Amino acid sequence: MMNGVFIASSSDDSLARGLADQSRTALQNLPPEIKDLPLHIVPLKPFNTVGLPALRALLNDKQSHEDGASRESSGGEAVKPGFSLTGLAEELAAQERGLVLVMGKGGVGKTTVAAALALAIAELGKKVHLSTTDPAAHLAQTIEGNVPNLTISRIDPKEETRIYTEKILEAKGKGLDDEGLKLLREDLASPCTEEVAVFHAFARTVFEARRSIVILDTAPTGHTLLLLDAAGSYHREMLKKFEESTPGKVKTPLMMLQDESQSKVLLVTLAETTPVSEAAALQDDLRRASIEPYGWVVNRSLSVSTTRDPLLRKRAQHEQKELQRIAGGLAKRLSILPLMTEEPVGVPLLKKLLRAGAQSPSP
Length: 363
Ligand SMILES: Nc1ncnc2c1ncn2[C@@H]1O[C@H](COP(=O)(O)OP(=O)(O)OP(=O)(O)O)[C@@H](O)[C@H]1O
Ligand SMILES: [Mg+2]
Known about the structure:
The chain is of the alpha/beta class. It has helices spanning 14-28, 32-35, 52-59, 69-72, 85-93, 110-123, 136-142, 157-172, 178-188, 191-208, 221-242, 253-258, 273-288, 310-330, 347-358; strands spanning 2-5, 41-43, 98-103, 128-132, 150-154, 213-217, 263-270, 295-301, 334-338.
């Protein structure tokens, strides 16, 4: 089943045409493994598919689910963004160092936002390091070509584990006999090793932000929280170990993440019910670790687009309820990026996304 496929009505709207083209191309280029399977298409609906009436409307192939848009958008004026990525880039570029962590659930646009922000900082003439746990191929695609001032690196869990294992074997394996080595190898083969190895890579990146500007494109929730958790235990262990002998001197990655002057967390989401709830849950988790998110980025928003397509306009109206939820308490700062006609992959299109997001008024 192919869900949420956009089918343009008889509209001459460029965004609608672009989206319909994207769907068509994706459907024409299905991977060979699934190409010949029976396919059922569920069209993109104008409403959020949450709740019984919405689910019934989904089953009935109805285009409208009426207790929706009119009531949801009755909250008065449309929500306006309070900060732009360009503005944030300028803020960061004014300093010599700093860390931005881009977080959020899978597929909401973390890598895109991280790449756009890194690009904007590099263009302002500051050295910036973009670090990601996303497979390198995708990121390279997103920001292909050489951008001066910008370096990209990838935290590869498998590779980090290999390096870490080798390091430990070299340091601790020296004096061991065969039996001892066997035990050590067995120890290192446990799943904890990957956790520790990725954490070390993460800590390296965090500390690098003491010297330069670093953007960290994190993996979706599960992994991020694991890292935070690891950061928390490491933090407690370090404090226990060193706080007595050198009080006030210990700096752990967690402490850097908690300090807003050094680190800023951006939560990326879509203006849809479930993604917003999940981002709110992630924010709660961060707050439990005493990390206060700097701002929220709503990506792929129709509210800030100029579309005239009737279905997309309806969806834009439904977005208002979510935007009000975010602006009305969830987010301290809100940035809204439009849904683009083309996927913002590569330097020119990322610049276009930055320009589009920057048009929104700042406070
Ligand atoms: N504003 C936008 N308009 C149109 N397409 C977008 C926009 N932002 C992102 N996309 C596209 O949406 C897809 C997902 O974006 P991206 O890869 O940045 O998400 P992600 O959160 O990093 O995903 P993952 O969790 O898998 O790492 C990509 O194909 C990207 O090109
Ligand atoms: Mg990504």
